[in-house]
Amino acid sequence: MAFVVRSGRLAGPLRNYLRPIAIGNRCISTSKKKDETAVVTEKIPSHKVTHDIDVAAASARKKWMTYGFTTQDETEDVALAHLFSLFGITLCIVIGSLAYMYGPDHALRDWSQREAYLLVREREAKGLPLLDPNYVDESTVVLPSEEDLGAYEIII
Questions:
Q1: Which of 25, 80, 110, 154 could form a disulfide with 69 if both were Cys (CB 3.0 to 4.6 A apart)?
Q2: What is the C-alpha to C-alpha distance for residues 139 and 148, in angstroms, rounded to an integer?
Q3: Which residues cross the membrane (predicted)?
Q4: What does the alpha-carbon distance between residue 130 and residue 136 come to, in Å, rounded to a whole number?
């Protein structure tokens, strides 16, 4: 989420680089093209049409490049490639991100909150207040004298 916010801040400076230079220019040629018509002078034979389709289909089969799953059957190779791509994306990205998000806290980011809950349960079980008003013993606290403070105002 932080990346989306940071990328939004970069949109302003990058806008000038991504904008085309000539926005208002329209390059339209209005010249008359009387002499630029294409004419086919050869006759197209009509009896070779089915033979040409068969040759094109055979050449397409010869040009097949395998994905590496099988070298005998093109449809099986393509199906396996798509299947492995689907499962690879599903397992790696979706399930991997779910395991990362809902997995244990290895970096101990939430340690303080868990420790606080444990201390609250412990104090409630013993019947103690959640926060002790005398957390630090008053006899161990050393405060400066009135002479050391001088003219400083003390705000409590």
A1: 80
A2: 20
A3: 79-102
A4: 15
User: Residue 54's CB: how many other CB atoms inside 10 A?
Assistant: 9
* Rounded-to-integer distance, Cα 70 and Cα 81, Å: 10
Residue type, 138: E
Question: CA 105 → CA 5, 109, 114, distances in Å?
Answer: 25, 7, 11
Q: What CA–CA distance (Å, rounded) separates 129 from 139?
A: 22
**Burial (Cβ within 10 Å: 0-12, 13-18, ≥19) of residue 123:** middle
Domain presence at residue 67: yes
pLDDT digits (tens, 9 = 90+) for 82-125: 999 988 888 888 888 999 889 887 788 788 888 999 999 999 99
The CA distance from 18 to 10, in Å, is 12
* 6 within domain boundaries: no
For 51-68, what is each residue's pLDDT tens digit? 667 667 666 666 778 899
Residue 90 belongs to domain spanning: 56-105
Residue 95 tokens, joined = 């399930």
